[in-house]
Write a structure and sequence with these properties.
Residues 55-143 form the IPT/TIG domain. The chain is mainly beta and 848 residues long. It is built from four helices and 53 strands. It is flat, with a radius of gyration of 36 Å. The protein starts with a helix and ends with a strand.
Length: 848
Amino acid sequence: MRARVDARASTHRRRARDTSSTVARRVPRLCAFVIALSTLRCVAGYRLPRYVAPPYLTSITPNLGHVVGGTEVTIRGGGFANEAGLSARFAYYDSSTMTSEIDVVKATYVDFGTIKVVTPPRGVLGSTHVTVSNNGVGWSTTPLNEAHEGTYLKFEYSNTNPTGTWVIQNATGHSRGGAVVKIRNSDGNFLPGPHLRCRFGDPVDASATATFTIGTMTKTAKHPWFGRGSGEVGYTVKSARLNDGAVTEGPSFILKRDTTYTFTLDSSVANFPFYISTVEPSNWEKSYENKLTDPTDNGSVYFTPTSSMPDYVYYHSTTASFMGGMIVLIDASSSDFETGASKANTVKAEWLYYNEIQCVTPPWVSSQDDSNDHGGKQVTVYVSNDGVTYHGGSGGADGAPPADSGSGTTFTYFDNTTFCDVPIYYDGSANAASYKAGIALTLTSSKHSVSPIYADDGTIDSTMKTNYANAVTTHTTEAGLTTGSGNRNDLVVEGTYTGGGVAWYEVVIDGATSGSETFRWRLHSAIGSNVAWIETGRAIPVALSGSPGGLLSQGIRIRFTSSGTHHVDGDRWLIRVYGGKPNVVSATTTHEETTYAARGPFYGNTEITIHGQGFFPSDRMKCKLHDSVTGTGDMILDAQFDSVQRVRCITKAHDPRSGGEVAGTFRPCFEKTITVSVDNGETYSDDSSAKFLFCDIYVSKSGSDTYGDGTPNKPYLTLQRSFEAALGEARSYALSYELGDLKTGIRGSSEFRTMKFGSASKIPVNKGFGYYVNRDRVQISSGSYTGAGNIGLHPLGKMLEVVSKDGTVVIDCEKEATGMIVNHDRHGSEEVTNSGSVSFIGVTHVNC
């Protein structure tokens, strides 16, 4: 029996070899047959590509992009294989014009159901038919087939400009740049892609520049044809017309007809002859057809677009495919022509959706200021879909500067220069009683807290702009008077503000008796603040020049150029000032004990919320915690901007103060003063009453839940009281806030991790106890703890660590049914965002 089995096996193997040889000998014929059907070529070895089943497709996101290409899209479906031939095909055909275009681009495998693709540039607008292949041979369906055989998707190509009216979130920032701003567009025509850009201020006038330098380099992901073509080399372009003269890979750009342009070829172009033609990207394979210039790999190429040429032409090579890019031709008379050049004030935008993008502000360019009659520097914000043509967000096809300058959506830069605005006058005739009664200053809530002229969305309030312009004129006139004016608006402000942050002086006439007017005044450091009058019934200092004793505070003086009955009760002036640095008012942490507004454990990771004024957003914001008792130096922390009135930072670990506990003090705990910088630590706010207490929570048998505050000198009596006083909002991720309310902000519907610009992450991401923000520590003195407050404990959604401080600690449940922990300890669940978590170190549990 065994012999017969072996013989059969041997025969089977021999037949298999014979069959294999027969198939191999027949491969050339089979290849010839396939070539006749689909022009598929046989590769070396006369073997067909390995069969891989094509995938099926369900969605493409986004499904609309610019014709310049470069839009990264996500295609979902199933059956995607991580193969070298994984690719997507973009096919187009218009029977009415007999126009067609087919491009195949390399795809990036993500998982079985997801791939990513960068769209190719196109010469034709409209909808394209998208299919996918795992091996470059078998596709999800045939080109342009919209029947039921296989699956396909649609991607729309557009050349829409980002016109419309848009608003900005975070309309102010430091002159060093780094502020993250979101721009929302009413028309929903922000198109995704590498050429989507923001520009903060006017561009350089480079329209007369007609020279380009052409080079080559190994293509990176920045090239529109990365991963495609017969080689890895692509063209680069350098010109004052593009990206501030930086070398750019395969960019698209605009040229005017009837203008001669010079393309100078550097030495790297040797063996890659450069020329311009009307051939579309799908035919960029060593083509000599439809030449507009003669190919050359040295010297210069001169090109003069004419009216007979199509709107889209291309630059490429005769020896390698997919090296170049697209050129857009416009009429010589076009008025909306822009060069794309900049004074380093153009940045790449992150596409969020068709009506929302996000940009990080570039540093302030000193020559850019659309409105220099006001504190800070206002620049119009422009957006481009193609990196060439920009629009200013003032509604409609608003075109290029200078028409938009100062009239569209604006961004305000602030630096460390102090300023004092001219006083804005409000007639008090109709509401004198309210001002005499001391009603709080009311700034319209829709206005940005650092400007009474520019609203939160960056748009100009026309009424306030008029009021300010009038105030500037009046101030100039009244300040130079040599005789009495008899004008109610005759207040002159002098001096340099020495305080911090943004503030407003309010000056109100409270006595208008003939010849003896008096005034009251106060200083506001926040919107809608209700502070007491500092002085009332003060005589008006009258002088035609100089500063005759009219000091208010912080270096600011006022005087009137005349006196008499021209004032009425309730006449009011607002004077906005800025001290060139932030102003810290207070600091808080997420705990309930009110003795110390901001407190956290020695091992750090405590989030401090700092309130004040003048926190202009920047990626260079810092918190500094410093003291004079520990000798450890300053603790410098990165700060997270929430609003101009609030920032946050997270503490590092700090050793307790040396020397141990001292009766009558909270040693080894200590306080550090908090200051904030918006310029990477060059300038910090002045010291204030805002302090942070480094201190664990202490519990002792001799403590008190009524009079204790959790410090070593005043410990609590029970563990539950310490849990109540502990830090809340424990999490392994930072919080980002929606800034609809600039004063307080609100958390979004889902808390999410704060990541670098352009990336995101799902939450929660539990990384272990030591990484949690707002975890807290309780130090419990030796002894036996039982009864209410020590058993049946609940962590209240907090993440806590209970540590024996100085000896044996026993928690005796006395066999109570409730046990020691009501629900979930750290060993039972890591879901601290819901139930909380408690760890015990050096603590013994009995009868539980």
